[in-house]
Design a protein that fits this description.
By secondary structure, this protein is of the alpha/beta class. The chain folds into 2 domains: 29 residues; 266 residues, Rossmann fold (3-Layer(aba) Sandwich). Helix content is 32%, strand content 14%. The protein starts with a helix and ends with a helix.
């Protein structure tokens, strides 16, 4: 009898120890702080490096914002019919590989708008802009930085004013980037790269010639032009293929966008501006909003100022 009780007691102790270990592991994971070396840019993350504040603000402002949980190629089907702008902040937990990037850029070429916000964006997500190539370069690395202390992120940094008045800088007087923004580099495409890009472009067009590509939200974006209009649009001398610089520091551009086919690619090289720990600084919220939505009403902007005071 005593032996049986001893066995039962031992089993209870083992089970109790396992429960305690699991509880400690859960608490440890839950309380783990974000770091700028391995940030969590998820819209579910309400901590420093997350983007929950921007996501909730857009929702509460009446915009239709959804978290994309499907393969990228679903943008060409029914799931993508209401998608006018596709925003990627940081590195997705499930990375977009080169094949998926090709599908995404075909969607952009048909009229979609791709917004990339990261310090080191994969080159295959950045198509050439006419005869120009765009990439990013890290200037500094956030070692031993506590993202819960924004003063460490912006130490010694000056505010950045718009390089010129554009749709992406409406009502933006000055933006506060972090010390760790990346430099956007723009340089001419070599002849070999031009030939390669033309071959890839023709192959993509042939493989998707039967796709209608109806993926716009009628409330925010116009329908895609027909093939006859595409030719006029792409050859119009008023449409510059060169990237437009909207924000620039003394060291390098910070925000650019450019046409790709009938769509646009927007690149912001400092996620701090849209992250929970940086969006309340200066006009960061306004810039983040314009990056993601572009159309702003005066009534909504007054609401934005009230929300910014609570962030």
């Amino acid at each position: 009898m005593r032996q049986r009780l001893g066995i039962i007691f031992a089993i209870v102790l083992v089970i109790g120890a396992l429960i305690a270990i699991n509880s400690l592991a859960f608490v440890s994971d839950d309380e783990k702080q974000d770091t700028e070396i391995s940030p969590n840019r998820s819209t579910y993350n309400a901590r420093s490096t997350g983007t929950r504040a921007l996501h909730d603000f857009l929702n509460e402002s009446g915009y239709q914002v959804m978290r994309w949980r499907e393969p990228v190629d679903r943008l060409h089907g029914k799931s993508g019919e209401k998608v006018g702008t596709f925003v990627i902040v940081g590195r997705p937990r499930i990375p977009i590989d080169e094949e998926e990037a090709k599908s995404l850029l075909i969607w952009v070429k048909k009229g979609g708008r791709l917004v990339l916000i990261d310090r080191r964006t994969e080159d295959y997500l950045l198509p050439p802009s006419g005869n120009w190539k765009i990439t990013t370069e890290l200037l500094d690395f956030p070692f031993a930085i506590d993202p819960t202390k924004p003063e460490q992120m912006i130490e010694g940094v000056k505010t950045v004013q718009p390089a010129q008045p554009t749709l992406l800088t409406q009502n933006v007087e000055a933006v506060m980037p972090s010390r760790f923004f990346a430099a956007i580099r723009i340089f001419p495409v070599s002849n070999d790269d031009k030939k390669k890009n033309n071959e890839i472009s023709k192959a993509n067009e042939n493989s998707n010639s039967d796709d209608d590509g109806g993926f716009f939200d009628d409330s925010d974006e116009p329908p895609a032009p027909k093939s006859e209009e595409v030719l006029t649009l792409n050859t119009s001398p008023s449409l510059s293929p060169a990237p437009v610089v909207h924000l620039a520091t003394s060291r390098a551009p910070l925000l650019v966008d450019y046409h790709y086919g009938n769509g646009t690619v927007t690149l912001l090289s400092d996620p701090f501006i849209v992250a929970n720990n940086g969006i309340a600084n200066n006009d960061n919220l306004q810039l983040a909003w314009l990056d993601c939505i572009r159309r702003v009403s005066s009534r909504s902007w007054r609401y934005a100022k009230r929300v910014r005071g609570l962030l």
